[in-house]
Design brief:
By secondary structure, this protein is an all-alpha fold. The protein is built from 17 helices and two strands. A two-stranded parallel ribbon has the order 1-2.
Length: about 500
């Protein structure tokens, strides 16, 4: 793709929310028969609901899996990390494939593979088998995530996009709300395998509905250049090196970081020579796209640094039952679900860059309050922290996604959807690995001079401080991007 397709150049001023525009799709892409936009939103939201219930159930199950397989925190985090590595490695490629063959086809196939992988997770008899099944599950999830946001953003007009993405984030919030409480209940009455079996009907129903009703709003690309397979392999190697380096507890990891000195330049060289590179460099000339993704990366990283630690904190430091911990964790998801639709409506009316700083301030406030969490349970204080954090996440995700997808335009809809998902899951990968590795290192340091519970508290609060720094950095970038806004004559998006 040429940079002439871009919404803005690197030196262009940034339009305000009331004047956001998108480029017309190329004439070679003639509109196909359209799916009813609300039906399409229901189908993509159903997939998001099932996938999020699965992800949040696994989070609450990590301590149980660690005990079941006699694993350390650094080892059990691979149940989450291997899934996120696969997602991050494949989503850009799946986005490209979606632009070629039709996003709806990739979405439907992904739902089928996700159902199969989830079933295999449930039947896993050991830790290695579980990790293998998670790889298959992640392959399907990468196809769903890479295309769902692109389908939504191209089916809905610009004036309704924030509302539609807000409903999708609402389903994510409901999944996050249901997952911990459902997972905690299941783990209290049944083996851990059941947390996977309950997801299979969601995935099967999603695949069936997508096959019958879902259609891509833009025709597939014909006679396109070959897929950038070499770039995909190198990108996967970079992601693996990053995660393996971070997962080493910051010791014995130098070889993985040294490998990055070779892999990153190799990726740049390969991408410059590709007729259609895996990483669309021209998009990064668009300040709204590049900085929007940077803000999202810092925000997601800060949240996952803390959220990975919370189940261990509740079950090991506060010694709460797993079912009670699951119900507590549902607080954050509840407020996220309540705020997401409101964020979509407000984003359409006042603009994403006016809403995002408020969300980041709420997140930073939540982490600051959590720094004063005592070693003995004070449930109301913890609920307050989770409620503020949930409001921050609910108000942040929708306007940020809308800002990025609008900046990319219809031409890059599936690709941008895949990139947003890759960025988010790479943040989750690095955040999870860094959280586990940093906790192990800090616990070892503090454990030399303090009791076990005190060492856990000090390590947890150091991670909270790092997450707070991430949120503040994200806030600074958001305020800078907002400052660059200039008024443009309003232009309507093509229908």
């Amino acid at each position: 793709m040429k940079s002439s397709c871009m919404t803005t150049s690197s030196n262009s001023v940034i339009p305000s929310a009331s004047s956001q525009t998108e480029p017309e799709p190329p004439s070679s892409k003639k509109p196909m028969r359209r799916t009813n936009k609300w039906l399409a939103l229901c189908i993509t939201s159903l997939g998001s609901l099932g996938a999020t219930i699965n992800a949040s159930s696994i989070n609450i199950a990590n301590p149980v899996l660690a005990a079941e397989f006699s694993l350390t925190m650094e080892q059990v985090q691979w149940v989450t990390t291997i899934y996120l590595i696969m997602l991050s490695s494949l989503m850009l490629l799946m986005g490209r494939i979606g632009d070629r063959v039709g996003s709806h086809r990739v979405y439907c196939t992904g739902a089928c593979i996700f159902a199969l992988g989830t079933l295999l997770c449930g039947f896993s008899g050991g830790f290695v088998a579980l990790l293998g099944a998670r790889v298959i599950q992640a392959l399907g999830a990468s196809m769903i995530v890479a295309t769902s946001m692109g389908l939504t953003s191209t089916i809905f007009p610009l004036k309704q996009r924030g509302t539609a993405l807000g409903i999708n984030v609402l389903m994510v919030g409901l999944g996050s709300l249901t997952g911990p409480s459902l997972g905690g209940f299941i783990l209290s009455v049944a083996p851990w395998h059941m947390i996977f079996f309950v997801i299979v009907p969601f995935a099967c129903l999603c695949a069936l509905l997508a096959a019958i009703f879902l259609r891509s709003p833009v025709a597939p690309v014909h006679n396109a250049p070959p897929l950038d397979k070499l770039g995909a392999v190198i990108l996967a190697a970079i992601i693996c090196a990053l995660i393996l380096g971070m997962s080493g507890g910051f010791t014995g990891s130098r070889w993985f970081f040294l490998a990055l000195l070779v892999l990153i330049p190799a990726l740049i060289i390969v991408e410059r020579r590709q007729p259609q590179p895996l990483i669309e460099m021209s998009l990064f000339k668009n300040r709204r796209f590049s900085m929007g993704n940077m803000i999202a990366f810092l925000s997601y990283s800060g949240n996952i640094l803390v959220s990975f630690q919370i189940p261990f904190f509740l079950e090991r430091v506060w010694e709460l039952p797993v079912a009670s911990a699951g119900l507590l964790l549902a607080t954050s998801a509840l407020f996220m679900a309540l705020c997401a639709p409101l964020a979509g409506i407000l984003s359409d009316r006042i603009g994403a860059l006016r809403l995002m700083p408020i969300a980041l301030v709420l997140n930073a406030t939540a982490f600051f309050l959590a720094l004063f969490m005592p070693a003995t349970p004070i449930i109301p204080l913890f609920v307050l922290y989770l409620a503020i954090a949930g409001c921050g996440m609910g108000l942040m995700n929708t306007p940020n996604n809308s800002e990025i997808m609008t900046a990319a335009g219809r031409t890059f809809s599936s690709y941008a959807s895949g990139f947003v998902g890759t960025n988010r899951n790479l943040a989750f990968c690095l955040g999870t690995s860094a959280s586990a590795g940093l906790y192990g290192m800090l616990y070892g340091v503090f454990g030399n001079t303090a009791a076990a519970d005190d060492a856990s508290m000090m390590a947890f609060k150091c991670i909270l401080g790092l997450a707070l720094a991430f949120m503040l950095a994200s806030l600074v970038l958001c305020l800078y991007l907002r400052r660059q806004q200039r008024t443009r004559p309003s232009e309507e998006e093509p229908s």
